Amino acid sequence: MKTIKKLWRYLKPYWWILLLILGLTFTQVQLDLALPDYMSHIVTYGIQYGGIEESKLEVVRKSTLDDMMLFMSEADKEKVLASYTLVESGTEGVIDNQLVEFKEDVYLLNEGYDEELADIEAKPLVIVHSLYASGIEDIGALYSDESMIAAIEEEISSSLSAQDSSIETMAIMYVADEYEAVGMAMDTLQTNYILHTGLTMLLIAGLCGLTQVVSTYMATRLAAKVAANVRHDVFKKVQSLATSDMDKLSLSSLITRTTNDVTQLQQLVQMMCRIILIAPMMGIVSITKVLRYPDLIWILGLALAFIIGVMIIALIVAVPKFAKIQGLVDRLNRVMREFLDGMLVIRAFNSQKAEEKRFDDANNEYRRTDLFVSRAMSLIMPFLMFIMNMTTVLVVWFGSKQVNIDAISVGEIMAFIQYAMQVLMSFMIVAMIWVMIPRALVSVRRIFEVLDTKDAILDPDDPKDMPKRTGTLAFEDVSFAYPGADEPVLEHISFDIKPNETVAFIGSTGSGKSTIVKLILRLFDVTEGRITYNGTDIRAYRQKDIRENIGYVPQKAVLFSGTIRSNIEFGRHIDDKTLNTAIDVSQSREIVEENALGLESEIVQGGTNVSGGQRQRLSIARALAKDSNIYIFDDSFSALDYATDKKLRKALDVMTSAKKATVIIVAQRISTIRDADKIVVLDEGKIAGIGTHKELLADCQVYKEIALSQLSAEELANA
After folding, report:
1. Most distant CA atoms of the chain, gap in Å
2. What Cα–Cα distance (Å) separates residue 409 from each residue in 42, 172, 337, 389, 423?
3. What's the Cα-to-Cα distance from 676 to each of 460, 505, 660, rounded to whole Å?
4. Between 473 and 442, whose confidence is greater?
5. Which residues are within 8 A (CB) of 41 and not within 5 positions of it... i.e. 6 or more apart?
6. 661, 630, 628, 663: which is closest to 649 by C-alpha?
7. Which helix (H) or strand (E) element contains residue 264?
8. DSSP string, 181-232
9. Whole-number Å distance between alpha carbons of 707 and 696
10. Which range among 56-70, 248-262, 396-410 shows the weakest confidence by mean pLDDT?
């Protein structure tokens, strides 16, 4: 229920569309369920009774009505005579759109006739025409013998079924005989009735189809909008997630949640707007229709009991597997992603067979689980169809007995079958939905697990404005441990970086160099101590403002599909002067010029169509094209040759000096950092030394060991 409430947040803005769909669906149900009654009327009244719907006589011979009144009470006689007008023979009249010339005196029904007329006339009409059929024409002559009249009436009444429907049925048949005796063309009457009712059915079917098309279109459009909004919010949320949250959810799972799970949610919304609405409506209205046939309703109840049993079994067997399937999709995506990312390594180590086995294990487990669910679902439909067919057989079998005793008509049997099928189809749809919804809800819960994840790194409630001028960046007794780690990565780190100063960090692998960069960018927050900029804790600034003031080049050069220009501009508008300066300083000019399309040259996903060094330089150009106060290079020169490295750093010094910008360099090579204004040496998360290259060579043993591992003593002496 909580999941549905969360989903309602996305449906609420489109409440008017939901109301429209609800109205259209209700209209469709009413129109759809009107058709069986019209079909019943065609069969019963159009074909069986020749186009006559009730026992009310619109025209009757005077002689017939006189005989009928012999079997009426005085009060009924008065009502009958008041409802008709006597017309003499030889007169013409229009009856049911037919021009009829009356060959004898007749009574024509008045417009404001008594509504009880059909009930009053039914039994007398049956008695009179039964006497006519037995050869008695002068019924009035018999009336003098009251005992004979009573005996005749009792005999005919006893031959009729006790049910009113039997009398009504016989009366309608005798109405047809009376109309034919008056001179009406019964074939024309029957044809007109069938055509009129058939055209009405066509109109209703057309309107029903139109409402279905419109409501389906609206439901599909609504579902697509909701899915797009959810997908956007998930993507936006992922951008704000801390690295620890990303690791917890895993990249492959996030991709699945943004794609497969959102698709499941879209299907759920579409089902909610159409099938989930229409099935209960159709079932409830159909049940009210079949209640008109109490002698057959027990068959439908028996069928529904079986269907509900199938629903319960399906829930017990299949539903627990749905959550497992989504987890297996995550696993499959993770294996595939790792294979694609590590393809070169896999080929280099000839590990294709091992990776194939790993993929097959994940794939086969997913296949087995999915097959189990699919088989369980596939067994449901044949069983439900068997129930429907057996219901039809039982209705025909027991209904034929009801027809035989005139308790029900053939048309009503056909209508009951259609209504019963509508009820069963509705319950079948509900049964299928009952099984499908839990799977969709698993996906919805996975989506909201992402959306409801609380950001580990938060902006302050009352943020301060980041100063535009270059300021001093300081670490004040900073310690940091990654979430879940037993030991801190950094311990009691203190240093400051002044404006227009180049500061380098060096140390062994795992000493905490890249962690310092992540703390400056507020990808993590310090565990102890604080980091200040211009004397203010950086946690008092907006994350956006902090990162807007930093040009960052990560360890792994990342390029995006697009062009050289789009990768350097990276969603920002950059003037040509700034763009060209960034290209020249990063030593990327040859990359642009060696391609015929220049800046519009294509870069494929991940930048795999350029070399590692070219990716590194274009990544540096992207950071330099950003108007920043601080530039951070996290081991960004490792893929460059010494000559290019030297030229780049020289051009970078000129550029940053002109802007009075701060430069932070994380590196492994002494040659890259020895000209820095300040070098911070890290060892196992602690500061082993701070100073210039010469000072550290003299005073810091850790730095000296690193330097001697890369350069000879002679080279260090001449440095």
Report:
1. 152
2. 12, 13, 67, 21, 21
3. 34, 10, 15
4. 473
5. 53, 197, 411
6. 663
7. helix 262-273
8. HHT--HHHHHHHHHHHHHHHHHHHHHHHHHHHHHHHHHHHHHHHHHHHHHHH
9. 10
10. 396-410
pLDDT in tens, 29-79: 888 888 888 888 888 788 878 888 887 888 888 888 888 888 888 888 888
Region of 319 please: left (phi>0), alpha (psi -120 to 50) or beta: alpha
**Nearest in space to 480 (alpha carbons), one of 468, 492, 471:** 492
- Asked if the model's pLDDT at residue 165 lies above 60, the reply is no
Q: Are 668 and 657 in contact (CB under 8 A)?
A: no
* Angle made by CA atoms 704, 709, 713, in degrees to the nearest 5: 65
Q: What confidence category does residue 529 fall into, taking pLDDT thresholds of 50, 70 and 90?
A: very high
pLDDT of residue 162: 45
Q: What single letter denotes the amino acid at residue 627?
A: D
> Binning pLDDT at 50, 70 and 90, where does residue 163 land?
very low
Q: Which residues contact 463 (CB under 8 A, 6 or more apart)?
A: 540, 541, 542, 545
Q: Determine the Cα–Cα distance for residues 524 and 514; give it in Å rounded to an integer.
A: 12
Closest CA to 417 of 455, 390, 383: 390
Q: Which residue has the tokens 């999709």?
A: 329
- Which single residue is written with the structure tokens 């055509």? 195
C-alpha angle 37/25/287, rounded to 5°? Answer: 45
Element of type H or E holding 476: strand 473-480
Q: For residue range 603-655, what is the model confidence (pLDDT) as tens digits?
A: 887 777 888 888 888 898 898 888 888 999 988 887 788 888 888 888 888 88
Q: Three-state SS for 276?
A: helix
Average of pLDDT values for 131-157?
65
Q: Are 110 and 85 in contact (CB under 8 A)?
A: yes
Burial of 698 (0-12, 13-18, 19+ CB in 10 A): exposed
Q: Please, what's the b/e burial string for 18-27 (b: 16 or more CB within 10 A of its CB; e: otherwise)?
A: bebbeebbbb
* Cα 263 from Cα 250, distance rounded (Å): 19
Give the DSSP letter of residue 162.
S
* φ, ψ of residue 533 in degrees (nearest 5): -130, 120
Tokens 């009505």 sit on residue? 65
Amino acid identity, position 444: V
Closest CA to 238 of 248, 227, 225: 248
Question: At residue 507, what are phi and psi to the nearest 5 degrees?
Answer: 170, 170
> What is the spatial distance between Cα 680 and Cα 557, in angstroms, rounded to a whole number?
24
508 DSSP 8-state letter: S
Tell me: pLDDT of 210 over 90: yes
Q: How far apart are CA 471 and CA 537, in angstroms?
A: 12
SS3 of residue 491 by DSSP: strand
SS3 of residue 95 by DSSP = strand
Nearest to 675 by CA among 645, 700, 713: 645
| Chain position carrying tokens 């995550």 | 330
How far is CA 628 from each of CA 549, 554, 633, 664, rounded to the nearest angstrom? 5, 16, 13, 12
* Residue 679, CA distances (Å) to 12, 205, 633 in order: 57, 83, 14
pLDDT in tens, 452-509: 888 778 888 888 888 877 788 999 999 999 887 788 899 999 999 998 899 999 988 8
673-683: average pLDDT = 89
- CA distances 81 to 60, 69, 96, 179, 357, Å, are 12, 9, 21, 19, 96
Mean pLDDT to the nearest integer, 79-95: 85
Cα 208 to Cα 497: distance, rounded to the nearest angstrom: 75
Give the integer Cα–Cα distance in Å for 68 and 128: 6
| DSSP β-ladder status, 473-480 and 528-533 | antiparallel
